[in-house]
Structures are given as structure tokens and as C-alpha cells.
Amino acid sequence: MGQFFEEIPSSQISWIKQQKVFWVATAPLAEDGHVNVSPKGYDQTFHIVDSQRVWYEDLSGSGTETIAHLRENRRITILFVAFEGPPKLVRLFGKGTVHEFGTPEYEEFVPIEKRLAGSRAVIVVDVHKVGTSCGFSIPFFDYRCERMKHVTMGATFELKDIAHEASCSNIPEGQPKPKGQGLKHYWELNNLKSIDGLPALESAHNSEVGFIREEWEGNREKDDESIGRNRKVEKKEEIAKAVVKGEDGRDDRMVIGFILGLLASAVVIGLRRALEARGMVVP
């Protein structure tokens, strides 16, 4: 049975904090506007302030529907799904507020030195209703690891911004600076309007606040798919090892070899007797 609450029940808070992914749904007011649903990930990006306020760090993307819709009407729903343990769905209904990168409000939630690479805003949600329901049809999924491609790409763009700022340091004040090709330029190209034309980012792309990122050791060309493939190989190896390992960890390959030898001998003896019964001479 579904239940509704006016705030997040204390019994659900610890469960919500354990989830690895959540979904955000928003919509414009126009009847022909596009309803948006966005999946969100990365550990420690979703935070619960209290039973009626939550916030999450919004990372850069090719679109900016959530921000645009919140600018227009503030309506937002956040969904959490149980992929392990008892089935459960939790929805947080609320009103959202956007704080863009480079604003004092943003830095109150995410100090510049602690932000994830590619972070463009903080979305604060004042929760006015919470719904829980069964989720009986949701399958089980096992969590493997985080995909690092997004933050690696964000860091790569931010390093371009840092290099651009350094190259412009000798330009006299008052003279126009050439545009960079980093994250702020990406925001300007892709994140100023929704697909329905609603305004989204307002200031982050022009912010004077710089990025702090001295280096980045990630490799987005191999850190995701190769990890997935390697985990599959490791799983196969674990299964193979489990076949020859006893529950107490001892190596049972000799025992298995002995048993297979007995089975093979029994087969040979059985064939010999069958042939002899038919009068055939077996050497």
C-alpha cells in the first residue's frame, strides 16, 4: 500500500543516503512543453539537510532542462528505487531552487575546493510531500562501481579554462579577452536554454570565479568500459576458483581429480564388461 507523509520519515533517511542513483523529474507549464526525467549518480552528491530539505550537486550535461523548469515554476520530484533488499519506491515532491556555480549561495553548499569536476549548480529542494510505494516489479541489480568518465571529462574542460585564464593574464585591463574552449564555453553553448526555449543558466558561464584543478590522472578513454569488462573477467575467475575451492578455502583440485579418475575408471570397466558379455575379446 502506498503511503504519503508531509516530511521525510526518519525511517527512510538512512535508506535514501545509501542509494547510488536517483531520478529527477520536472516539467514546464506549457501544455506542449517537454517533461524531463534525469538520472543522477555519484556518491556524496545527494544530501539531506533535514526532514523537509534536501539538495544535490548538479553536474554539467548536454542539456539543462531541470534548471530551466525550476526557473519557471520550481516544481520537482525526486525518485529513489530499491535495487536490493525489500522492494521500495520513495518519491520526494517539492519546490526547487537553483544556485549556480560562482555564486555565494553555491559555495555555501559546495566550497570550491570540494566540488566535483564539472559541477555547475546546486539544486535545493524544499520537500512538502513524500510518497512511498511497493516497487514489486523492479528487478534486482548489483552495484559495481562509479563511472568516472563524467568527472574526467569535466576536469579536462576545467583545465582548459585554467590554461586560458593564464594565457590572458598579460592582456591589459579593458581590452577584450578571447573566448576559451573550456567548461564555461561549453555551458554557454549548451546550457543557456531548455529545448523549449526557457532560460536556464544565467551567470555561471560568465563567472569570474575560477576552477581549482592542478592535475587530473584519470583516463576517460579506458576507465569505464574496461572496468566493466575487467569486472566480468574477475567474476568468471571467481566462479572458476569457487569450483575448486572448499568452503573453508582449501584447494580441492586434487580431490576433484581423484573423483574424475574414479568416474573414468568406472566407465572403462563398464564398457569392458559389456563387450565381454557379447563375446568380444577385449585386450
Explain this structure.
The chain has about 280 residues and is an alpha+beta fold. The chain has helices at about 10-20, 65-70, 105-110, 150-165, 185-190, 225-245, 255-275; strands spanning about 5, 20-25, 35-40, 45-50, 55-60, 75-80, 90-100, 120-135. Strands 1, 2, 3, 4, 5, 6, 7 and 8 form an eight-stranded antiparallel sheet that branches. The protein is built from seven helices and eight strands; from the N terminus they run βαββββαββαβαααα. A hairpin with a 7-residue loop joins strand 6 (about 75-80) and strand 7 (about 90-100). The longest helix has 25 residues, at about 255-275.
Rg over C-alpha atoms, rounded to the nearest angstrom: 29 Å
> Which regions have little confidence, pLDDT < 50, spanning 5+ residues?
none
Give the distance, in angstroms, between the N- and C-terminal Cα atoms: 75 Å
Structural class: alpha+beta
Overall pLDDT confidence: 86
Strand content: 15-25%
User: What is the overall silhouette?
Assistant: elongated
| Total E-strand runs | 8
**Secondary-structure element series:** EHEEEEHEEHEHHHH
* Tally of individual helices: 7
Helix content: 25-40%
> Describe the biggest sheet?
8 strands, antiparallel
